[in-house]
Amino acid sequence: MDEVFGRKDMISPSRLKELSLKSDVSGFIQLGSHLGALAVTGAALWFSWGSWWMVPAFIAHGMLINFLYAGQHEMSHSTVFKTKGLNEFFGRLFGFVLIYPRDFDQIQHFAHHRYTQDWEGDGELGRERYSMLSYLLWVLGPTYWYTRIRRVIRFSLGIVSEHYIPADQHPRVIREARWHMAGYALIAVLSVATGSWIAVKLWLLPMLVMKPVHQLQNTIEHLGLPHIDQITENTRTTRTNAIMRWMCWNMQFHTAHHAFPGVPFHRLPDLHRTIFVEKGRKPHSMTYLGFQLAVIRAFWNGRTEADYPDDKIWIMDDTDLEPVGPRTAKQA
């Protein structure tokens, strides 16, 4: 990027206050449209099972299930609804569906925001540095689901080893995991007792198989950017279409979100325009496909994440090399 700037210079207090207003109406419009789409794809999948028509229904349904995490993420920030209890209720529901308990996710995610790209503190960097194999296993889903399921089981057994979870929060995540395990066990028992495959066909199978599409968003947000304490340098925005932005609850405006996480999802496009476009600035950005191709090239010939410097960008496209002019009087 041509210039580095701090959050204090990005937006006026009055404009930030305006953009930070929460709305139950906007929350229910987004939630209702997502759940409504799931109902449509679920019905299509159920009635087309066994025919070729199930393929597009399966793909769409699995994508929509996985992208419920965008809603869970925003509900952890309590920005989807003005009514606080709604954020918690639907956040817990989504966490159960996604095998990603809300309380744990919230603790981990807040550590991620506080220590973004810090190998020691970022709750989402508790991993070995990627090689080609480990990256592909994560993107395609095997290691993602292994870690998620194993963690819920481990917590339910009273074993919490994550350094970013304070000791006084251990009982909370243990209790939550046990409730999850009880719920999953109940569904399994009822499914066996009734001979029903509905949980497998309409939930588990499409969710597990279609995880790679959601991983496109998970991986693009920070990988290949500097491990420094500068939001406009360590976070990436995604260039994509309106359908993907809707399905991901506008999380493609990720730099804007990290800069001001209290701004609701439905105002993130406005926040992006305010702090970047109107000031003649731009965040690091790539397309989903462009990013994945760049990662493959970066890990080609046996190279790993450890072969690249922590303080420099090493996954980029031509837009990161374009000059950004200073703010003009018209832009001001």
Automatic annotation (TrEMBL):
Keywords: Membrane, Transmembrane, Transmembrane helix
Pfam families to which the protein is assigned, alphabetical: FA_desaturase (PF00487)
Domain Fatty acid desaturase: 51-275
Signal peptide start-end: none
GO BP: any one term: ceramide biosynthetic process
GO cellular component: membrane
Gene Ontology MF terms: sphingolipid delta-4 desaturase activity
Residues spanning the membrane: 25-47, 53-71, 181-204
Protein's name in the database: Fatty acid desaturase
Protein source organism: Ancylobacter rudongensis
